[in-house]
Design brief:
Elements: E1 6-9, E2 20-28, E3 31-41, H1 55-61, E4 67-69, E5 72-87, H2 103-107, E6 115-120, H3 123-126, E7 140-145, E8 150-164
Antiparallel strand pairs: 1-6, 2-3, 3-4, 3-5, 5-8, 6-7, 7-8
Length: 166
Amino acid sequence: MTGDEHCELITDFGVIGTKIRNIRLTLDGTELVAEIVPGEILERQFRNDLKGWPKEMRDALKDTKPIVEAGRALRLQFDNVAAAVAQEEFVSIVAELSTKVSAEQEIGERDPPFGIYRVKNSIWRKKLPEFEGGDNPYLEHFKLLSMECYVDILGVLVGGEWIANN
């Protein structure tokens, strides 16, 4: 192993099975809860009222089906969170944080790249000073990627469970 930063898909709580539609976060002190909401593809057509739209948009959407939030979510609980970064939306999976943590470099050719990842040999984690938790041997870098956003967390994953998505 070269020590290069890379991601490993987390499947400890089962396989999500579809693209992740949304991620909801709750932060309370150093505890963070992330609800990972899978997507569900509806069988009906996306839109049937596209008459006033430009032809390119009508052509692009004519055979598509809507993706909505599924009826269940994976609730992940993190403790001792030293840092968290949430990016609401990204145009390209090549989005970079100021710490040069690039999703493209870490995840590679996975299609789609949406998922829950543990970042091994994290550059961001290595740069965390001791007085901010850098000396905690259990602290890890996690990357959550959905269709809506991506989240990076430096913390300790203490548990997870499937819940109803209300």
